[in-house]
Amino acid sequence: MEGSRITKKMMVNPDMISNLPDEIKTNILSKLCIDEAVRCSVLSKTWKGLWKGMSHMELNATNMVEPFTKLLRSRKPRTFPDFSAIAPPMLKSVIGYNALVVPLLFNHLGVISSCRIQHFKKSLAFEHVENWVEILVAIHTRLKDLSLECVAHCEELTEKIMPEEYTYIPRFRHGAFECLASLELINYTLNSWIPFLECSQLKRLKMKSIYLDDVTLSGILENCVVVENFSLLECIGFERVIIMRSTLKVLQLQALCVDELQISCENLDVMMLDSIICPMQSLSIYAPCLRTFHTYCNSMYGRMLSVRNGNSIVKTHEILTHCCGLLVSSPEYF
Length: 334
Known about the structure:
Structural class: alpha/beta
Helix content: 25-40%
Number of helices: 10
Strand content: 15-25%
Number of strands: 13
Radius of gyration: 24 Å
Strand order of the largest sheet: 1-2-3-4-5-6-8-10-12-13
Oligomer: single chain
């Protein structure tokens, strides 16, 4: 009897996914990019507007701009004039992407705990990225995990809007990241540590393909007072890396060419070094509680730095020979 009732119910309403609780459907949408999640609203009435309750929001410029551009091209001239004669396609993509992102951030009604934004480089020229971060922090006060990645538009290599020195530098406000517990920055030029002021909650910081000088790097590390997981990958512009933080537990350094590297972290548990270029006499590592030590020479970017600068990558045996207080018991070598 029970089996027949279930079969009868499935015949009446065979869409089992739509019958799931809204919490589960919202969790499913959180695994998608925001443009795909919004399009799910047309599946049925039960899916309409569910994207507004997603806990994770992922904004991808490449995925979102292409259908938006196609939509504009499909409009009649009297409805949406063709500005191709006065505005390059790249400029329209940047402005169009901002026109999509801002309403999405304002119209989201739920709690956003994590957000990943991938944008074009020229979005920095119009301070769009800084505006998105301010909206997120002001409206979605429970945001804890933020990832920002700058990517090149296919036409940015040939078109110029502003002088190069003003185009790609973000100008985040004072203490812009103070409410975050995790931050990821990929492919930026940073000339100030002011946005990291009062980062008393930031426990995970990842910086990849970042150009920054010694003062900026030092200021960032000094203000991240509770950081536990720090990654510095394929970054340039500085000559010294000095990391002295008792709270640090996981450290990853990859493809760095420096004149001095000092690490003194008494509670460090995991350390990963990949393709590090540094004079041995200027290399110092003190990590008495280290349990797991990974060392590689696999980074292609690190090899390029080695060839360009004429210096060799530090080998594992050199690190172990010249650095005291590195390993204590039951180490793992890879």
